[in-house]
Amino acid sequence: MSLFKQLKSFFISGRKRRYSASSPFDSGRSINRYTEHSLYWPDTTLYQELEQSYYQYFIGVNTLMELELNDFEQDVLQRLENIFQQNSQALAEQIPRLPDITPKLLHLLRTRDFHWKDIAALILRDPVLLLEVLKLANSSRFNLQASEDKLEHVLVQLGVLEVKKVVMKTALKPIMLIESGYFLKHSGCKIWEHSVKTASACQLIAQKQKQEPFDAYLTGLLHNLGMTIVVQTMNSVQDLRDAPRSLLFKGRLLKLSKRLSVLIAQNWGLQQPIVQAIFEQTDEFTEHKSVLGQILYQANTVCMQHTLESVGRWPSAGNSETTAQMAYNRLKPELDALTAN
Q1: pTM assigned to the model
Q2: Spatial distance between the Cα atoms of 298 and 323, rounded to a whole number of angstroms
Q3: Residues facing 254 on adjacent strands
Q4: Diameter of the chain by CA atoms?
């Protein structure tokens, strides 16, 4: 069965499926499907233009050409296609894994009667996570003068949402921020930067739409995971005499990247609305999108434009009164502040 048929079956049956309450990623609140367009929806042409410009920035080329696939491009695409043909055991080895402590912490944090001392005890077992929590608490944003011996109090001050966010960022950063190798050196940090920026934009939009903020944040953080595997695959191809330069390669590569993101989200056992929102970004999905799918689409569009403007690859529209530009202008100050930090 093709991946598309598997996903179609998954979401059709998902409408009747009861998801386990023990899922560590379940926020306990459902995200309802929308009945009318309540969000700004970027038109397809704008999105495609931004996506192509961002792809060129991402891999470091100025122009793409109408060419047949070269040997490098064919090799990369074949290796990526082979991932979907593997058995479940081989597939599991290709997909990155979350640290064991991550689902444990998220499971505790979603329960109503958890104790902060239990959360603190788990965090103390992970030096990297502990450092990130203290770094956040001592940042100019919170300025809590935090220390390890006051961790429980620090966590209370930060609150559930911020603790969830730092747990996921700490777990995903070593997976997505990889800089060794030719393509990873040029593109690895861009994956992480775009994911964090999109996650923050998703949270901002969700809060304005009265949706669950952590689900939106997590969706934005995870939506580009497939690109990590794509870049690692490009890096593994030894023959670098042919550069990725064709429009055909770009189109097929981006489709595979989105499919891989869905596959990882499923493999990690994320709740259905998050998996669906990521799936709704693929070309295979043509039905109406969920609210979370709309939020991700808008946030991703805005963040691509924000990055491209900052590097001089997209013209600034200034005070343009188009719906798209006004939506962008509303989020730009927050994105500027995030980039500055």
Answers
A1: 0.84
A2: 12
A3: none
A4: 61
Cα–Cα distance between 304 and 193 in angstroms, integer? 11
Cα separation of 6 and 73, whole Å?
27
**Spatial distance between the Cα atoms of 76 and 232, rounded to a whole number of angstroms:** 10
The type of residue at 198 is T
- Residue 159, phi-psi category: left (phi > 0), alpha (psi -120 to 50), beta (remainder): left
- What is residue 246's three-state secondary structure? strand
Which residue bears the tokens 């081989």? 90
pLDDT in tens, 255-289: 999 999 999 999 888 889 999 999 999 976 766 78
The full set of domains in the chain, from first to last, is 1-8+38-69+178-341 (1.10.3210), 95-176 (no CATH)
246, β-bridge pairs: 65
Q: Which of 290, 220, 285, 292 is nearest to 255 (CA)?
A: 285
Crossing angle between the packed helical segments 291-310 and 44-59, to the nearest 10 degrees: 50
**How far is residue 138's CA from residue 120's CA, in Å, rounded to a whole number?**
17
CB 331 within 8 A of CB 201: yes
For residue 157, count other CB atoms closer than 10 A to its CB. 13
**Alpha-carbon distance values, 317 to 232, 320, 326 (Å):** 35, 6, 10
- Distance between CA atoms of 43 and 169, rounded to whole angstroms? 31
329: Cβ contacts below 8 Å, ≥ 6 apart: 319
The neighbouring-strand residues paired with 65 are 246
* pLDDT tens-digit series, residues 134-186: 999 999 999 998 899 999 999 999 999 999 999 999 999 988 877 666 666 66
Name the burial class of residue 299, with classes exposed (0-12), middle (13-18) and buried (19+) by CB atoms within 10 angstroms of its CB: buried
